[in-house]
Amino acid sequence: MDNHRVYLTGVGGQGTLLATTVLAEAAIRAGYHAVTSEVHGMAQRGGVVESTVMMGDIKSPIISDGEADVLLGFEPVETYRAMRKCSRHSVVVSNDVPVIPYTVAIGKGLYPNVEKIFDFIRSQVKQLITVSAQQLAEQAGSGLATNIVMLGALAKSGVLPIPKEAFEETIRTKTKAKFVETNLRAFDLAFGSTAENKGNH
Amino acid sequence: MHPLLTQEEGKKLLLLGNEAIVRGALEAGVAFATTYPGTPSSEIGDNFFRIASVSELYFEYSTNEKVALETAAGASVSGLRSMCSMKHVGLNVAADALMTLAYVGVRGGMVVVTADDPSMFSSQNEQDNRIYARLSSLPMLEPTSPQEAKEMTEAAFELSEALELPVLLRTTTRLSHCRGIVTTGALKPLHTKGTFEKDSSRFVTVPANARVRHKVLLAQAEKAREMACASPFNTITGAGGWGIATSSIAYNYVSDAVQDLGIQDRVKILKLGFSYPFPDKLAVEFVRSIDKILVVEELEPSLEYDLKVTAQSNGLAIPIAGKGPELFSRLYEYDPGMVREVIARFFNVDYTPPKPVDIKEDPQSAQLPMRPPNLCAGCPHRATYFAVNSVLAETQTEAIFPTDIGCYTLGLLPPLQTADFLICMGSSVSSAAGIARATDQRVIAFIGDSTFFHSGITGLINAVHNKHNFILVVLDNGTTAMTGHQPHPGVDLTPPGWDKPSIPIADIARACGVEQVSAVNPINLAKTKAAVKEALDSNELSVIVAKAPCPLYERRVTDKKKKKRAFAVGPGCATDCTTCIDTFGCPALYKDSDPDADTPMIINENMCIGCGVCVQFCKEIRPKKIRAKGGD
Fold first, then answer.
1. Residue of B43, B249, B373 lying closest to A42 (CB–CB)
2. Which of B43, B355, B372 sits opposite A66 (nearest CB)?
3. pTM higher than 0.80, yes or no?
């Protein structure tokens, strides 16, 4: 069975850890062995949250530099910052909606031009797929569903051998009952709307 | 029902390493569990906490790790199966108890979980707690996956009862916080009531008894060594003339690397899950069968030294290497690529590592904004720090800030910068005493509520008795916030069904003999500043309890949204005034990037919780009329 290493990165509060578990459960549902890793504690207070999902015959729960097959970035600058995990062979799926770091908000730094950092990413990896996750999540009924939108975009890309139904069934059984409808809507919106590597988004 | 209580056997669950440990304990019939929360061990206690509310299991968040260990030991010497979990530095706190508990031993099985943190994701150091096994002569098990964490936990209880010794179970952050598939076994019924059978010659460690008991301990440790040699957790696999010895999470990196490099038929792997006492006979068998050995273990060269000693004692002189230049470091956690590279170099195997994307090749990366963690919007700690800084600025006083461990350590960062010295839990109070005594500087120490109970009180009594002069500010947010909102003995905002008495911190301070004790709500800036001013003016040991609930915890426990007050920056906000950014630093207050904006500063209404502290120091920030629709 083939192996897949997925690296997830985002900002505390974006729900990357739930996305990590849903992705792993969906991989298991698709017949894969899966291992994940997460970072808890101080790192989560408004900082960067990184996690991994490994599918297949892999025992190591973490990903070394240059070894991610897929990078799922929940925030443009964090996608860019995590590029060291990628190589020429990687596929990157990124949210294009910034979460402005506090350093920028107080004028102690500049948020880069999202299109320009995406141009760089495009020049370095096999494929970049961008999605306006925040908007789609709100369209689905809640900005909190950004994480599920990201999974929808990942599912649509087809880079992982996990069928749409495995994601949907996992969302139905593993996310909070009162959010299931919104989450499924968010997933479907993303599944139907990703702008694929077109140079604009 | 709690998912870890499923009766179904053979069910496959995707569990965190910490959850797998809890399941293993339940399958072993654990009846008594204690902890003091600390990343990366916290989820063990948190799951027991929830399970205890729906089962016969007894669980408590103890005031610190020493108390937790002694309480669990009391249950185990009375015949119950107990588990005590903590982070690696917690075992330092509990070490006094552990060292001599090893002498007297236990009756019901007792498993002590130590969760190490290589790379210090959430800790002040990265000490290797395998050394505690050697120091205490107690057996240690080190799982490599959640499934093994469950199996080893169960086995650890059996081992503990067979040897009448507590058993150490060591994880690292990567094991505690990785998820893997775990297959459930049968849950054992709990044995929840024991009897303490008196045996003072064993359990009372006066020197005459302790001398006997040390001998017993060493004899038991030798039995444990025999058991380690035969343990299914210690294996030699593979074939060929090369050898790799490994344990814990590093085993996974080794196993993957051997596959990736295609050297399966050239390498034997010695995997030690039951790593202490060192299984010498198995190790000799391994050393004899190969030509050279690479030892792959994070942090200290523990396994490496044991192998070298064993080889030397048996007259074996093959190369054994682990730490060193071109090899492995004693620093930080390892990763699969690094392990693969060192293995390839050591055994001279062709290998080209992948080329990572380097954003430094992109000029835009030079100015990439950082995203450090920050105190939340509305956090009462920020208000307290702001009040202290304001009074110091107004009175042109400089102060040294010994601080402590919790969310509030983030006061270190600009603009608050209220942290000057921190080594461990409780150090704020006692180091403040030393700094104040040794200098003419003013000292204002900060400690959280849970940390105060953990190890602040003895330092405070010491300060009263020895007439030390500093101000201690207790940042009382009513919960142990950093590790996931666990309760502590001072909580008054409690989860439903909570029936434990609350012990007010101000009362404790007074009982310790502190004469200047004040309690303020830090959200009230004027009163908080007055309390700080008064303490500074009095120039004697003072305690200020700054008490306001953690907003995240309050929201979670009360489960109802408070009517939110909204605020806006008025038109008088001057372009050149950046006081709010430079001194307060609430993440909800930020600069409008639009140069033509009405006001240079804006309030992010989604982030603002309406605490209203900023209104008290900036007259341009005013309450905003809330639209009827968006009332809450």
1. B373
2. B355
3. yes
